Here is the input.
Amino acid sequence: MSVKLLIVFVCAAVGTCCGFFIMRNYRRSCEYYKDLCDLVGELRRNISYRRDSAATVLSRFKTDSSLLNRNIGEYLTFARSKSDAPDISKGFLPADAFGDINAFFTSLGKNDGNSQLDELEMYDKKFTMLCEKATVKSSKYGTLAVKLGFLFGLAVGVLFL
Here is the structure.
């Protein structure tokens, strides 16, 4: 009897862990977009007042998102090498969002200050919209994934009996 309960418990725990993994992926994309919006805001403030180069601002920007840190590092490598376009990692980003993010990093530092501010404002609106969508998706589907993971694991455990 105790072995059967242990099997059900282990299956439910594995299912719940899978649900938490899925929820973490939703939250990771939400965190990425929030940090990206903060980065655009920092660039806009800097262009408006200090007028440092984009590479300087990006090198000082601190973020918890590992993908955004990697993207910033790739942009800094691009800025040092003066190649045609930065090689930005896609990571977990969907194709349409990746296209916007790639265009954002490609456009940095290519225009005068006022044009760059207008462009950054456009990207800020796009990234804010992506952040809001990711937040809604995370709150809706993240908890659902944990609950369904638990129920699926519980069902598998019962089937093993």
